[in-house]
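$ run holo --ligand "inosinic acid" --emit tokens
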Amino acid sequence: MQNHPKLTAPKKLIDEEALQNRINKMGKELTEAFSKRHLTVIAISNGATIFVADLIRQIDLPMQLDSITAYSYTGTESSGKVKMLSKLKLEIKDRNVLLVDDILDTGRTMKKIVDFLHTLKPASVETCVLLDKPSRRLIEIEADYVGFEVPDLFVVGYGLDYNEYYRNLPYVGELT
Ligand code: IMP
Ligand code: MG
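-- output --
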């Protein structure tokens, strides 16, 4: 039998109510934005899984969901290399894609996946992130939809991890 690891409790930054309020608003905005266009949502797994689950339930339109797996972090350091592990199941040629991630940090992950998606000839690619850390950007890229801007802190919870832990926290907290 294995014991649970001892994890330090993160400092709460964005609580559950603030998350749900903001995500409800984003869902309404997206419903409006895609009201006349067929929508394919692509979540960047694993980080975006919790966010996308709540977000798409606030989008009142027929839509399809797929995911792509990518990672660049080990611990609290960006490795600088983005690895893409899985490809899409859906055909996105001529589709309107909304790419969803947990956080836009250096921008490498988003850029790499946006570039990959464009090779599949979609009609459009827009991006949506729960959190944006603009002070860390190394690549010129902005998200079209942003939940919250955060300062340069390492944050966990609500899908964001530290070595795969903390994803199940219902709030976003700072790991100190
Ligand atoms: P980027 O490629 O540097 O923009 O990093 C984006 C990815 O790094 C995200 O998909 C996250 O998984 C991860 N990441 C960046 N900042 C944090 C953080 O503060 N906490 C947890 N994961 C992070
Ligand atoms: Mg991630």
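-- notes --
The chain has a mean pLDDT of 95.
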